[in-house]
């Protein structure tokens, strides 16, 4: 049975969600969603919750279909007024929600725990020394990608060093090249 058939069998024809009143304020949150074992998954009510948080209906449908099919999904919710309240609402509907993404971490603390100067830290982990200085002095903040790297350095510095190392093989030897296809279907 297809996912669509299973959802129709479980929940009937289309349910109106458009009448939900959206929240006025809130910040964006990235969440990982998993089905709670032993509880019923109420996808219609969950869709209503997500639509109220300014997630487009089509996106809510896609996320909940993935959750229904695989037991897990990831979603960027545009306006969350209270993360704790959203987590509680989704839990009542059979969904465990967790913030997904790097939280703030002090770059200086990570560097100092490794007993490295700013220059050594930058060189070892593929960063610009000026960038590290700016982060530590509060002149700029690491974006989400940089924050994920800092967390990885904090937890597994050897993995970052290993990923940056070119010992052994060149990238083209270890990774198959991507085939580029033009708009007309010809390889090029």
Describe this structure in words.
The model has no long low-confidence stretch (mean pLDDT 85). The radius of gyration is 22 Å and the shape is elongated. With 188 residues, it is of the alpha+beta class. It contains 10 helices and 3 strands, in the order H-E-H-H-E-H-E-H-H-H-H-H-H. The protein has a 3-stranded antiparallel sheet. It is 47% helix and 12% strand. The chain has helices spanning 3-11, 43-52, 57-70, 83-92, 107-113, 118-124, 129-136, 144-155, 157-164, 171-174; strands at 27-35, 72-80, 95-99. It has 2 domains: 3-99, 2-Layer Sandwich (Ribosomal Protein L30, Chain: A); 107-166, 434 Repressor (Amino-terminal Domain) (Orthogonal Bundle).
Which structural class best describes the helix and strand composition? Answer: alpha+beta
Which CATH top level class of the largest domain fits? Answer: Alpha Beta
Number of helices: 10
CATH-derived architecture of the largest domain: 2-Layer Sandwich
Q: Give Rg in angstroms.
A: 22 Å
- Low-confidence segments: none
Largest sheet: 3 strands, antiparallel
Total strands: 3
Approximate shape: elongated
Number of domains: 2
Tell me the strand order in the biggest sheet: 2-1-3
Helix content: 40-55%
What's the mean pLDDT score?
85
CATH topology of the largest domain: Ribosomal Protein L30, Chain: A
Strand content: 5-15%
The CA-CA distance between the termini, in Å, is 39 Å
User: What's the helix-strand series?
Assistant: HEHHEHEHHHHHH
């Amino acid at each position: 049975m297809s996912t669509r058939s299973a959802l129709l069998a479980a929940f009937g024809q289309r349910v109106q969600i458009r009448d939900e009143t959206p929240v006025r304020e809130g910040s964006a949150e990235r969440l990982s969603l998993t089905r709670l074992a032993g509880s019923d998954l109420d996808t219609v009510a969950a869709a209503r919750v997500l639509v109220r948080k300014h997630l487009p209906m089509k996106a809510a449908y896609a996320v909940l279909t993935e959750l229904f099919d695989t037991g897990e999904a990831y979603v960027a919710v545009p306006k969350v007024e209270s993360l704790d309240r959203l987590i509680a609402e989704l839990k009542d509907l059979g969904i465990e929600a967790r913030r997904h993404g790097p939280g703030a971490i002090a770059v200086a603390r990570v560097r100092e725990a490794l007993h490295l100067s700013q220059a050594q830290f930058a060189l070892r982990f593929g960063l610009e020394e000026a960038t590290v200085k700016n982060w530590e002095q509060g002149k700029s903040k690491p974006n989400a990608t940089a924050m994920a790297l800092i967390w990885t350095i904090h937890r597994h510095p050897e993995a970052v060093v290993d990923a940056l190392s070119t010992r052994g093989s060149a990238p083209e030897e270890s990774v198959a090249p991507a085939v580029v296809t033009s708009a007309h279907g010809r390889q090029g």
